[in-house]
Structures are given as C-alpha cells and as structure tokens.
Amino acid sequence: MVQDAIDLSDILDVEALRADCLAALQDEGKSALDRRAAVLAVLRSASTEGRKKIRRLLDEDGGGLACAQRLSWLQDQVIQILHVAVAETLQPEASSIAVAAVGGYGRDTLAPGSDIDLLFLLPAKNSDAMRKAIEFLLYVLWDMGFKVGHATRTVEECIQLSKTDMTIRTAILESRYVCGAAALVAELEKRFDAEIVAGTGEEFVAAKLAERDLRHQKSGDTRYLVEPNVKEGKGGLRDLHTLFWIAKYYYRIRNAQELIKLGVLSRHEWKVFQKSEDFLWAVRCHMHFLTGKAEERLSFDIQREIAESLGYHSRPGLSAVERFMKHYFLVAKDVGDLTRIFCAALEDEQAKEAPGLKRVISRFTKRVHKIPGTVEFVQDRGRITLADPDVFKRDPVNIIRFFHVADIHGLEFHPDALKRVTRSLSLIGNEVREDEEANRLFLSMLTSRRQPALMLRRMNEAGVLGRFIPDFGRIVSMMQFNMYHHYTVDEHLIRSVDALSEVDNGGAADIHPLANKLMPSVEEREALYVAVLLHDIAKGRQEDHSVAGARIARKLCPRFGLNTKQTELVAWLIEEHLLMSMTAQTRDLHDRKTITDFAEKVQSMDRLKLLLILTICDIRAVGPGVWNGWKGQLLRTLYYETELLLSGGFSELSRKERAQQAEQELYDALADWNQKDRRVYSRLHYPPYLLSVPLEDQVRHTRFIREADQKRQALATTVRTHSFHAITEITVLAPDHPRLLSVIAGACSAAGANIADAQIFTTSDGRALDTILINREFPVDEDELRRAATIGRMIEDVLSGKKRLPEVIATRAKAKRRNKMFDIPPSVILSNGLSNKFTVVEVECLDRPGLLAEITAVLADLSLDIHSARITTFGEKVIDTFYVTDLLGTKITNENRQGNISARLKAVMAEQEDELRSGMPSGIIAPAPMPARRVQAAPRRPKADA
Length: 946
Prior knowledge:
disordered N terminus, multifunctional enzyme, ACT-like_dom_sf, Four Helix Bundle (Hemerythrin (Met), subunit A)
C-alpha cells in the first residue's frame, strides 16, 4: 500500500475530517439539503488543500508514481469518510454495499484530472435504501467537481457481463476494495478468478494486444510524434497498463514485480519498467496540474513549463525543452522494448507443449524451418528467430546479419529473437563497427529494393542502429522544438529513406513525377541512400548541422565501403541538402541571378538530380501535409531552369529582344480579337511580366483585364485552382497604390488564407495586376473555388473600404496564439548580390496573423517598390523574401538607408499578436474606397527595362 512507502500525515488529517463530516450530517437543526451542502463544503475544502500539498510534494521530490498514489489515497479517504458518515447518519443500509475502485483508480493511481471510476457492489438481496445511499455518495462527489464513472451491480451481474464484454472484464480485473462490505469484493475477486480468468488467458491477451494496435493506429502508429499523447500514445502509460493487465490476467499475479520470479523480466528490465512508469506519471501529473484539466497531449504550449518543472537545463546544442523531450522519447522507446520482451516471454509460455493430442498438434504447427543460406537463424511461422541462444555471442556480426537475412527472405521478427538482440547490444563494439562484412550487410539493407525503412526502424527500435553508428545514436529520440518537424530526428531520417525507396520503386509518381523520371538514370544510387540516411545526423550540435554532417559522412562512408568519389559526393549532398529547398521556396526563380548562383554551387547535372531527389525525400519526411504540389512545382521550375544553364540551353537573344518576341506571341494569341484591342492589350505589359509569365496565363490575364474594362470595373478579382500544385491563384486588378500588396495580404490573413507566393506587376496604363498564390485547403475544386471567391470578395471589400482591415485581422488573432511558446529573434538581411536588378530583403521571425500586411506596409512607408515576394512558412517561423527597388527603379545601396530599413522591419516583427491595436496595425493605413471609374495612377516601376 502507498501508506507504507510515503508519509501522508501532512496531506490530510483523517480523524478530524471524519469528525467534521459526521457533525455536519448529524446537525438535526438543518434540512437534508443543507446537511449535504455542509458536508460537501467540508470535503471540498479538505480535498482542495490536500491536492495543493500533493502538488507541492511533486515539485519537491519529483516522484510521478508517488504523486499518483498520493492522489489515490486522498480520494480513498474522501470516499471512505463520506461512506461511513452516510451509513452512520442517513442510510444505515449503506454499510451493506461495497465500494470498489476500478480502472486506473483500481491500480491505486490517479492523475489530478483523472476520472474516478467506481463499482458499487450490491448484495443479491438489495433495497431502494442502498441505491439511495449510492445516489447520495455520487451527488456529493459530482458536486465536488469530480468526473465519476460508476456502475452499480451485484456480483452475479458482474460475472455475467464479464463473459461477453472485454472492457468490463478489464475493469473488474483491476478492482480494489475501498470501503463498505469487504466480503462482496472478496467474493467478486474469487468468482472472477475461477469463472472468468481460468482458461481464458490467450483470449484476453489477443484482445488486449489487438486493442493496443488499434489505439496505436489512431495515434499515428509511431512513438516519435513531437506532440505525443502521454496516456494513449505509443510508448505511453496505456502501453504499460496493457502489460500489467496481461501479466495479471495471464500469469495470475497481483504485482508486476512477480514477473522477475517468473523469468519474464530481468531485474534490470523491471527497474526500467519502474523508472518509465514513474517518469510518465510525473509528466502526466504536471500536465494536469499545469492546465487544470485532464490534458493528455504533451503539446508545444506546455512543453517548456513541464521541462522547467522537472528540472531540465539547457546544454550546448540542446535547449532544456529538447533535452526533456529526448528523455521522454527514450522512455517511450524503453516501453516498446519492454513490450517486445514481455510478448516474447508470453509466446514462449503459450508455446509449451500440452499433453495428449495437443502435444502432437503443437509439434506439427510450431516446428521451425531452415532458412536457405544460413545455419544461424531459422524460420518459425514466417518469423526469423535464432537457431540457438549463443548465436550472437559466437559472432557479434550475426546481430547485423540477423536483420539482413530477414530482409532478403521477407521475414517478420520473432519477439524472442528481438528480445535477445536487445539484451546483446553490448556486443556491438568497435570491432563490429569496423568489420567489413558487417558494413557490407548494412549497406545492402540500406539500399535494398524491398523495405529498407522497415529494417532500419526495427534496428533502431532494438537499439542496434545507434550502437552500430554511434553518431546516429546521438540523435535517437531527439526532437526539435518547433512546429515544422512532426517527428524526432531519427524517425525523420528513417522516413526519408522510406520516401527514397518509394521513388526508387516507381511509387508516388503522381506527386513528384520528375524525381521518379530521374531516379532510373541515377548512377550513384548507394551514395544517394547514404546521404539521405545521414543528412541530419549532426542535429543538436553547436555548429551548423550540415557542415558537421558532411564531416561525419567523410568518416562513415569509407567504413560502409564507398570509394573516395562517392564519399565526397555524399559529403557535398549533406552539406548542401537545404540549398535547393531554400532557393526554391525563398528566391525569385524568374530572376536570372537566382539560377546562375544556384548553378554555380551545383556545377553538374548528376549533382542536380541527386540534390532534387534528396530534397523531395527530406520534405516529405518532415510530417503529414508538409509536402504539397506547390513545393513540387517550385523545385521542378528550379531544376529545369538550372538544367538549361548547365547544358548551355539559355537563349543568346538579349532581354529586350526576348521581351519583344513575347509581346508578339501574345498579340498572335489574341487572333480572335479586333486589331485595335489586340494592339492595345498586348502592349499593356512590361518586360518583367512578359518574360516570367507563361503565354497561357498572359492570355487569360489579358482577357480578364478587357472584361473588367468592358464592365467599367476599377477593381476586379479572378480565381483559379491548381489541384496538382495544391495551390489556388487569386489575381487582383486595381488602381495602383503603394500599399496595395499590404492590404491584399491583410485581407488574405483575415480570410484565413496562407499566402505562398506573390507576383506583382504594373500595367503600362498605371494599374496593378497582382497574383497571389495561397495554399489549397479543400480537395474538391468546387469547394476550393467557393473558398477562393470568398477571399476575393474579402480583398475587394477591404480595398473598396467596405470592411476595415484591423477589425477583420483581429478576428484571426487567436489562430497563432500557441506560437508564443517559441522564441525566434527577428532577423533582417538586405543583399544586393542576389539579384542583378533588385535589392533582396529577407525577413525571418515568429509568425502571427497580419504579419505580412504589416511588413509590406513598412516597405511602402519606406518608399520601396516591391517587384516580387516569396512567402515561406516553416511551422511557427516565417521567412519572407522581397525583391525591391527605390521609386526610381534602382537598388538600395546607401548604408544608412539600409540600416533604417532593417531597424523599422525588426521593430514591427518584434510586436506580439496581443499588442495588435484596435486601430490599424503598425504601418498599415486604411485605403480610401476605390473609385468606380478607372484611375490613371503613376506606375510603380518605370516602363524602361531597368
């Protein structure tokens, strides 16, 4: 019992509380309702004070399991005292019922926000008075604010229901006497063991494991989600509970520690069980206390505070919260190891030969078979296992060979074999790591055309991968505290290999056709697989992980058997593995300097192919929904533009000649128009538009402009969806205005649209033709078009003055509130070397509603003309890039002016969302309503091709 291990005297004065409750109920001068209110006040005050003391003790000693037991003990006292008081004052027949705790409460543990699960046992001959007593107990507990799950049954009813309902069977399995008629609980336990448990162990085990698998599927089937569910998630408390249920039911034991005597767990493994349970309970209790509710998801919002409560501190390369979460995932991994070891022992137990006919059947169905090409391993019903217990001791390389044989023959893993792998990890030393055969086998698995990610994941779960590659071991269970990455670093790398394998086997061609087209022509396939596995292996270090990762690769690749050329290729790919992604997402791909700079770094078509495929695999493995068609289109555009340059395919025509040619092509494409309109509308556009916008879109835009002119619309919008690109395009035609992009961005933010890109052009008659690309939300075009039309109307309403931008932005302010958990210092970089014509302004900061509108407003205040913008969101962080000139069309070269731009932008980026004023956010001026007739405004950029 918890009382034996923990001093509880300071939590609650039991005798005093019992006396107070009896006095409250015995006060005959009050009505029954008033007496209930009085006892309620006494118990509520005692419970509240007791919980405060328990929380203080948790902060002092950090004992998670102790906290859960203290809360359970406190709840026991409340129920016991209430039951005695009712029996002695209101309903004497209450003493004839029994109150038993079930569920987690039955295990003598409670979290601060847990339900109180109770079973009220009635004698076979019961009365209404007993049920009224139960009702009184329940009402008091409910009025105290507890969530009480309850059932009222006789012993016979419990037995009958247990035969058909596995949930009820599990609840009764954990029942624990709290107060009342103890004989009823003893009778239930005796009959339950004899009539339900006996002979049904295998049935119960199968049901609980199936239930666990279903639960894991619902939670993503991985224990490496960066916002894990501490209770229900893979590797969480429920997995430990499942082990306890199975152990208690199958082995007929009362305490999980008895598994040591049975040989199921070693003493070391039992200590791991205890430490894992204590840690998970500590996390869960802190979560409930912190949030004031039964919060089970360890979300970003509370991770920092939980880490602080548990006493974690920052270390070089890892923040306190990242160290805490790494510990959490290591514990979740330990829970997985315990599950595997436990299941192995369970299967061994079930496989023992039975007498008579069963023995013959068992020998026939469970005999092992040889595996061709090996004498060390055998097959047991499609699962690889060891031919004898000393396989790994004789030759530790057999640990690597074990997974290789499983890969070649497509075998599942026998849990007993995996248990032996886990217990043999100390055999993997430098001798095994440097062994030529071991490395050859590993590279063969990594580059297998079957399921390399499955083998890597099994090796990782068993602890082999981190032992065989110590640098990989450093990033096992490591998380990055941001909203962009969904998995731990090791899980991300394994998923990257899985994505590469899918490309290699021709899968998912519908989402990245270019990569699938290029993969068969890749000559350095082995180098690509190694680069994908190792590209983030240096995360969590003080230095740049790309540079450090390249250094690690130069050490590991020769060990794996790669030659010097392959090693340098892998090192280059790792060092530049972010280059293509960042260039595609944050640079103007229609700016020639972007392509030439990128090509200078890539230098060859072979590198370009490999880098493209690596980039796609990396993005796809970040998490669900991170990869989309728009990113694919950006990468394809960058690839094709660079391919032209590397192969010498760029046109030798001057920019002016190419613009004239494009204007003629637009004129020709409008053949069904009259000559006057063809001439007028084909001359509306400046060279930047003609050279960067496809002819098909030029025609569509020109028809849109003419239609707006015919309707005498000064302001108009048109939308188009791109299902493959997962992008929706909104084109705005309006009188030019220095703050036009700012207003459009604010309107999109107010409508909940995430801007991915912006193309900004001015027509020769002074109008703005801006195309905003937003991330698609709905899979069906009709739904997405309706959404886009709503956003278009929002833009028109804001531009026309029908709606005020600050008010509509404020309605979205709560959407990014959780971003406050992150600290991203505002950064501004101005560069004149990234473009031949423009100054490139790159800002990086914490995302929030209306941010883009504020930034573009500041740029307008500073008399900067935005020519193009690239908007990129990485979880809670944004990196926005603007190609700007001054109003004369020249770069910003004055150092004082550059400093002023940087200071103004940092000031607006530093503002927090709760500081958004009720008026227009900083830098934004409400536009005057647009006039009904066309306005000839001064163009935002000169007509000459500067």
